[in-house]
Amino acid sequence: MPSIPSMIALGVIILGILTLVSISWPNRRGAPYWPTRMKKVESMLTIANVQPGELVYDLGCGDGRVIIMAARRFKARAVGIEIDLFRFLWCQFLITILGLRRRVKVKYGDLFAKDICEADVVFCYLLQHTNDKLEGKLMKELRPDARVVSNTFLFSALPLIAMDSETGFYVYNVGVQPEED
Ligand SMILES: C[S@@+](CC[C@H](N)C(=O)[O-])C[C@H]1O[C@@H](n2cnc3c(N)ncnc32)[C@H](O)[C@@H]1O
């Protein structure tokens, strides 16, 4: 029979390994977990002009703050995609206790493997090389009138329609062609 201190030590080691996997796996697949400040989430949803009933996607939804605010404050429908199992389960829990299950869904898995064609607004806070890889998917799958909001990182081929350089977020419209010089 193992002693209590050795069982505690084993528990700490297992927790440490799970934490490391939870940090390094999403980082390798697209971006580490680093949540957007709540005030900035609100500004981004406002500048993207999210309307009641619209469908907002958050690619890499973390703790679900963007999709939850989109549904509660902006009366939108929302879908989050999250590759980290713990955060996915946490989002499911929050959505359930907040009574949002009819309007907010979370999908577990890699954002690159999910169909996003129904989105009216796509939100992302990833990394520059992940945005570079994502751009083709956005252009291929989204409708021309869809808006894309990126926190901090840019899309080079999408037409920029609004930005806030102070807090660092960028709004693109997939179908708007950039003006010629
Ligand atoms: C910088 S955090 C942003 C979280 C949230 N969107 C926010 O703004 O608060 C990036 C999130 O993307 C997730 N992620 C990274 N790569 C992913 C992938 N390939 N598919 C789905 N989620 C991914 C991470 O687990 C993390 O939760």
Architecture blueprint of SSEs:
Elements: H1 4-29, H2 38-47, E1 55-59, H3 65-72, E2 77-82, H4 85-97, E3 104-108, E4 121-124, H5 128-141, E5 147-151, E6 160-164, E7 169-173
Parallel strand pairs: 1-2, 1-4, 2-3, 4-5
Antiparallel strand pairs: 5-7, 6-7
Helix pairs in contact: 2-3
The structure holds S-adenosylmethionine.
Walk me through the structure.
This protein is α/β, with parallel strands linked by helices. It has one domain (38-173): Rossmann fold (3-Layer(aba) Sandwich). The protein is 39% helix and 19% strand. It contains five helices and seven strands; from the N terminus they run ααβαβαββαβββ. The protein has a seven-stranded mixed beta sheet with strand order 3-2-1-4-5-7-6, with helices on one face. Strand 1 (55-59), helix 3 (65-72) and strand 2 (77-82) form a beta-alpha-beta unit. Helix 2 (38-47) packs across helix 3 (65-72). The protein starts with a helix and ends in an 8-residue tail after the last strand. Residues 26, 29-31, 33-36, 58, 60-62, 65-66, 81-84, 87, 110-112, 125, 151 line the site of S-adenosylmethionine (SAM).
